[in-house]
Amino acid sequence: MRSTAAGVARRSPRRSQPPDPAFRFRRGELAAALATGTLIAELLLVPAVVLVTLILAVVGWAARWRPHWLALPLGTGACWLAAAGPSAAMAALAAGLPRALPAALVAGAAQAGLLVWLRSRRAGAGWRPGLIAAARRRFALADLTAGCTVTRTGCALGLDAGTGALAGFDWADAEHGVLLAGTDRGDLLPLGLAVGCAALRRRKTVLVLDLAEPPAGAAGQVAALACRLGVPATWAPPGGGALTAAVGHAIRTRGVVVAPGGPALVGAVTAALTRLRQLSLRADCLLWVDGWAGADPAALAALFTLGPAVGTAVLVSTTSAACARALAPVAAVTVACGELTPELAGAVALAAAAAASPAVGSLARQRAGAFTLIGPRSVRPGCVAVPISGPAPPPRAVRGPWLAGPSPAGRASVPRAVRGGAGRATAWGRP
Question: For residues 39 and 41, what is the distance between their CA atoms, to the nearest angstrom?
Answer without folding.
Answer: 5
